[in-house]
Amino acid sequence: MDARATHRHDGLAARNSLIAGSRTLAMKERALSLRRGGVDVIDLTSGELAVEPMGAVRDGAREAISRGPAASTSTLGLFDLRREIAALVTARTGIGWSADEIGLTAGAKQALFNLISVMVDPGDEVIIPQPYWTSFPDQVVIAGGKPVFVATAHRNFRLDATDVAAAITPATRVVLVNSPNNPTGAVCDPETLVAFGRLAADRNIWIILDEVYGDYVFPPHRRDYPFARAPQMRARLVLVNSFSKSLALPGWRLGYFAAPPAVVGAVEALQSHVTSNPNAVAQYGVLAGLRAGLSAYQQGILQDLATRRAFGLDLMSSLPGVRTITPEGGFFLYADISDLVGRRLAGRAVATSDDLAELLLEHAGVVVIPGSAFGDDAGMRISMCVEDAAFRTGLVRLTDALRSVGGQAQSRAGRVDCPEPSDAGAT
Ligand code: PLP
């Protein structure tokens, strides 16, 4: 596409034409406006936990405010907090990380944006497993890079190292892995990580492991860091995490990354010109939370998610034409709806995941995210971080509506992996 031709006349930069607006947020907005008009709508789109923040976090933030002067912190955050996070990552991964390998950012979104900006030159390729979190491709495109998608649907949404290896070219700079995956809930298995570690070292590629949902993995699944089997991975791996998810603080905008010092230094220089330090009050709150210990708080959230997961899977399993993936972690149920493509709901044809989402909104009063937002036009994402009663009512309405889908599927080839970056801004 000739972006320059599109945008020169309005005085804005050519790159604007490469950044898509958010259809998912538009969907959410429509639901809100229906609700304002008195229509009973249940929102199953959220990527934000509907729970109170930890008491210790709130107290820490309150104390920081009442202490007085509201000074900035170092660009990459309070040293004490970086040290605390380094200890957390060390305990989790089984290998040592120090404070100067940690950087704090305005959410994981900024960590990812900064990392891609410092790693990707124009024309470089970034491998992104599909379905993907909606901002990945757009961030790569903004950096001038080229997203290269690796499909996982044909492997029951499991990421396969041989598929990734086949997609690597001399232009590949980064493999961007999200585990547990948003939207599918798949956890990357250790064998795949071992293979990535070797590939990364052999081909001089970065692996960014976005593990923002990593604290919410359903037993017996678990996240594994096979550094013992792939020690060369350490020098090429960057971990990304978020207190939006791990401490249910999405509005406080605090995330972090753990990376080799050269990467941390490059991000620090970039961030010093963009946002400077992330919100200081949020940092003090999270520091107090980490010192108090997170496990009891997170255990409660995991338990609630597991209960909703069991309820949702049970209901969805009885649906003809819908194959719901059992999430191994994260906040979402993801369903393969390719068998519904070509059928009819309430007299209207279902040709795409967008059609299905639209019909579910109109006829069942539930809002879901269509798979197209994740580069998979035969999927549907249902949030499990909705308050219990709403989740249950929403699921019942949704499954009742889907049971009424009539007619024969036109083809089994309903699955389309969308080639283009689609949607910015959704969670
Ligand atoms: N990575 C993934 C996979 C996500 O789903 C999200 C948000 O939903 C983010 C990163 C960004 O999170 P944050 O709120 O920390 O910016």
* CATH homologous superfamily heading of the largest domain: Type I PLP-dependent aspartate aminotransferase-like (Major domain)
Q: What are the bound molecules?
A: pyridoxal-5'-phosphate
Terminal CA distance reads 27 Å
Q: What does the overall shape look like? A: globular
Q: What does the model show?
A:
There is one protein chain. The strands form 4 sheets. The chain has a 7-stranded mixed sheet, sandwiched between helices. A 4-stranded antiparallel sheet has the order 9-10-15-14. A hairpin with a 2-residue loop joins β11 (344-345) and β12 (348-349). α5 packs parallel to α6 (135-142) and α5 (107-119) crosses α10. With 427 residues, the protein is α/β, with parallel strands linked by helices. The chain has helices at 3-7, 23-36, 55-66, 79-93, 107-119, 135-142, 161-167, 190-203, 243-246, 261-274, 280-292, 295-317, 353-364, 388-403, and strands spanning 42-43, 102-105, 125-130, 146-151, 172-178, 206-210, 237-242, 255-258, 323-325, 332-336, 344-345, 348-349, 366-367, 369-370, 379-383. The chain has 2 domains: 19-48 and 297-405, Aspartate Aminotransferase, domain 1, CATH 3.90.1150; 55-292, 3-Layer(aba) Sandwich (Aspartate Aminotransferase, domain 2), CATH 3.40.640.10. Mean pLDDT is 91; it is low at 1-5, 409-414 and 419-425. The protein contains 14 helices and 15 strands. The protein binds pyridoxal-5'-phosphate. Residues 47, 107-109, 133, 178, 182, 210, 212, 242, 244, 250, 255, 427 line the site of pyridoxal-5'-phosphate.
